[in-house]
Amino acid sequence: LNLDYRIGSVHFIPDFTGELIDVDGHYDRFMQKMHDNFRNDIRYVVETFYAHSIEMVNAGGFDIIGHFDKIGDNSSHFKPGIEDEPWYQSLVNELIDVIIAKKPIVEINTKVYAQRGRLFPSERYWDKLIQGGVNIIVSSDAHVPALIDASLDDVKGLLAKHYQ
Question: Between vectors from CA 35 to CA 30 and to CA 39, what angle results, nearest 5°?
């Protein structure tokens, strides 16, 4: 295809039967899938998400990695505080190390920033990415044309502080 760029993002992971299940959607649906498809095993879901993300980055074939810690939002609704747990942090840092080595551009996704103050990846990871020489873009990931520039100026201001 004659594309300007390609974005790679993990949206689906296999459940225990091998069926691919969307873990990217709204957290209400995520909570139901945790019950119906994953036996409420949030550790399996998070570990599998990051393992697939690492495989994707290593395989390449895309220019930009999109919302690489999106699972943190849904997993935090399922288990508040999970993103602060050492095992979780280790998984994210392992992915960031692979990103630094492979150098895809990283998207900072602003889609829900205005509503929930959430960015993907979380601002806590930006310094490591910047220090690792990773190029960063800011995108709204808008699925609705009216939101194409949602929070872009706010997030560009936040990002500029990390480059000072």
Answer: 120
